[in-house]
Input
Amino acid sequence: MAADDPSGEASGPSGLADPSRVQAFSDAVFAIIVTLLVLDLRAPHTHPGGMLDALLREWPSYLAFTISFVYLSVLWLNHHALFRLIARVDARLNWANLALLFSAVVIPFPTATLAAAFAGGDRYDERVAVALYALSATPLSVPWLVIFLHLVRHPELRVPGIGDGYVRAQVPRPVIGIVLYGLSGVLGWFVSPVLGVATFVLMIIFHAATSEGVRRLRRG
Amino acid sequence: MAADDPSGEASGPSGLADPSRVQAFSDAVFAIIVTLLVLDLRAPHTHPGGMLDALLREWPSYLAFTISFVYLSVLWLNHHALFRLIARVDARLNWANLALLFSAVVIPFPTATLAAAFAGGDRYDERVAVALYALSATPLSVPWLVIFLHLVRHPELRVPGIGDGYVRAQVPRPVIGIVLYGLSGVLGWFVSPVLGVATFVLMIIFHAATSEGVRRLRRG
Amino acid sequence: MAADDPSGEASGPSGLADPSRVQAFSDAVFAIIVTLLVLDLRAPHTHPGGMLDALLREWPSYLAFTISFVYLSVLWLNHHALFRLIARVDARLNWANLALLFSAVVIPFPTATLAAAFAGGDRYDERVAVALYALSATPLSVPWLVIFLHLVRHPELRVPGIGDGYVRAQVPRPVIGIVLYGLSGVLGWFVSPVLGVATFVLMIIFHAATSEGVRRLRRG
Amino acid sequence: MAADDPSGEASGPSGLADPSRVQAFSDAVFAIIVTLLVLDLRAPHTHPGGMLDALLREWPSYLAFTISFVYLSVLWLNHHALFRLIARVDARLNWANLALLFSAVVIPFPTATLAAAFAGGDRYDERVAVALYALSATPLSVPWLVIFLHLVRHPELRVPGIGDGYVRAQVPRPVIGIVLYGLSGVLGWFVSPVLGVATFVLMIIFHAATSEGVRRLRRG
Output
């Protein structure tokens, strides 16, 4: 490095950073969100003998907890697979990753709202909660799109041996995410809240199935 | 890697991942659950001079905190020892590990319910709480069974030098867990809640004693 | 090492530590603060049909959450860039880093107070909240100043190739922080709370723009 | 390893583990406790114009937060320095470390109780809170004693070059901790609560000053 700057005066760190610290930070964020979810499961305060009823009445919390945990696990698996492609992190990848973490950190909020709405049983509230969930989940796919497009254009950020074709084949994944999450919000609002939720679950399964990345169908 | 795919077009990352990130994520989850437990210990709000009584009245919270901390520590020690066997993580190990973390993240909830039931003193509530605890703890052993059986069948995922016999000798550990946790639930519900809790404590001691893995009794 | 101390009796670890554990600890702290912010976003408890109104009424929480997340992300990016300069951590750097983390951990508190004050709409409360924010944010820059000045005087703590000029060029950044945060508090108290908040947002943008470090304008 | 067990059947992992995962887990626990402390600082809910009074009335929370943060930071610095001596972790070190983390995780609880007692102003409550604090802090030194004594007897667990004399010189540190914390509880209960608190602050300063380890006074 000193060789780059013979004066040895103004030389700073090189522009590209090692991804390990970004990964460790992201891992910690995912681990914390996943674990904070349990704070919504609380020992019920009831009159003597009322424990069973009190526990059973909280079923939407258990469902919301399970769905959130699975969703965040799937996100983490996707993130894990993503960083197996990346050798260097530049400022744009760093910011896109922070945007991705922002969307992930938010998830417990619309999930809890969805659980509260379905526990309440009011159809208008359910439509509002489904729309809120779609509004939160749709932008989550944007940083993924930014990252994959950036990796297509900058092979120098990739782990050696990761081909252009493979990276390009990942681009449709976040696009499908944006379109389908948006659609699920529209369906949930105009047609049926349950249909909206069903589309969310479908999206989580889709993200789980493609978490290790997709290969192109035609021969390389 | 480029050598594997001369076209350099569609090549993605290799299928098997380094376990270090899975470990770091799991460590963070364990560290967070263990630490969140303290949120259930709160400075009591009392009338002047009532601090001592208020503190003493909260004894079931202290007991629940201590048992949960020990249990989660034992789980972490087991996890720590497990990952000393694993050199590569495939998708099935990753999912089984997430299922394991799910069961661990849940633990504070049945523990707090157990404390609340015994503080309340209603026998029916205690039976419900013991059953809930058994229901939560029994499935915790399933991912351990899946992982050990998977490692038996896939020596290529193991650290070099870890023998078949050693891995096979670990399989009965989660089976004992499933049977005894189930039994403790049945005992707690039909015979006596205190007996159920005693069986839980016994199970934690068993898991502590075998956390470093067991060796086969007969000669290799 | 034994060679340094032929008696082999009193030799302890060398005085300078590897920065990786300090970094990992700091990363975890940043990850946790950023994630804990979501605890202030709660599913609203309302009468049936009141979900939308209840959600909309909470807008200052969303704004406070977003600003805090961005601010802490920017701090983490700055910290990330800082540790790319550091090869060894001595006791003073360790303490300065802990002071830095202290100021970062505090941030959610003045931010939430600011949100509460603007939601309440009382002008005196807004002035108090802006002053509290400035009081919390101004000392945050002090450990940065201590660290950069310490790195100027101790090249042996720096990664090889990081020049004196580069490190010296970073010193004005925390000085600007101290002056402008102090100014924003004065403006917010004596002139207008909104002007104070605007200056805070400006400061976050300034820290974001300079997170990768600044280069000297004149030629090295 | 396969060489140790020609049959390749029953060979398990070697008994001594790498300390890096134990360190990472401990770091995460320290980072989380330190950060959770901020949850006790909450934006006050007051009538319009009452923000300043409400903020000022919470001064014991700010003091408790600051003391807890400094104390846990000092503990982490001590832990950090301890692990620079350790090359291998056996089962006893692992358990002692978990006991150490248990005592650290508990700290926010007696600290908050102390703050509540002094805010309340009842002298009997203050004595109770000081005794609780001493009861919580005294056992914290026990695992440190166990660890240093274990390292004296097992040089093979130490980083090469760490001499017997150096490790033996650390043994009095936790002994002083046990004696003085116990004394502070006795003083706080029988003489004056403020004197007890003063002794705690003294202990934190003592631990801060010796966090990097002590050297023997006489020549090696």
